[in-house]
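Provenance

Sequences were taken from public entries as deposited. Structures were produced by running a predictor on each sequence independently, with no templates supplied. The record for C-type cytochrome from Pontixanthobacter gangjinensis is shown for reference.
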Amino acid sequence: MKSIRLALLGIAVFTLTGCGQSGVSEDEAEFAMGDRPKAFNQCASCHGIAPGAKLIGPSLAGVVGAKAGHVGDYAYSSAIRESGLVWDEASLDAYLTNPQAAVPGTKMSFGGLKDAQKRAEIIGYLKTL
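Predicted structure for C-type cytochrome:
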């Protein structure tokens, strides 16, 4: 865990100092330095953040902007693969609120997160991965 934080800190410092305007919000920059939101702990019990990480669920690295059900070699449900979703803020917010309502038949057994602020923190963090 500490090595991941150090790697993220190094990437954040390199990105933020070498590129002028970084294009990330202040909150995203904070997350890029390894301070993931506490709300993400629920996600981390099943999802890795390193590319190709294999836990119960797929890695969340690069998920924002990706087509749902097509990140890495995870065995996604046909429901998520055929959903046509692209993971943006709106689709992630709906999915995190109630996965089964957003994509009926998804394999994700998480019941949903009702707190909008916590969902926003998670989505902000996912943007940094």
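The chain has two domains: 1-35, 37-126.
The chain is about 45% helix and 0% strand.
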